[in-house]
Design goal:
alpha+beta, four-stranded mixed β-sheet, single chain, 27% helix
Length: 71
């Protein structure tokens, strides 16, 4: 799905989760800005991933078009 970036360079209109080594960021990237940014400590990786999954799947357009397979 083009609407997601996992440890990749963000592009416009994407949900992102980036591991910076000491922190993990989740955010929506649009027009060069990080919106709804949440920062998690490295030891909270599971929490960051759970937040990202729940947040992304709360978007009805993504949920409708998702085939249920994580690639």
């Amino acid at each position: 799905m083009g609407a997601l970036r996992i440890n990749e360079t963000p592009s416009d209109n994407t949900y992102c989760i980036l591991n910076h080594g000491d922190v993990i960021e989740t955010f929506y990237f649009e027009r060069g800005g990080k919106f709804e940014l949440k920062v998690f400590a490295k030891d909270a990786t599971a929490m960051a991933i759970a937040h990202f999954e729940e947040w992304v799947l709360s978007d009805q357009t993504i949920r409708k078009n998702w085939d249920g397979v994580v690639r």
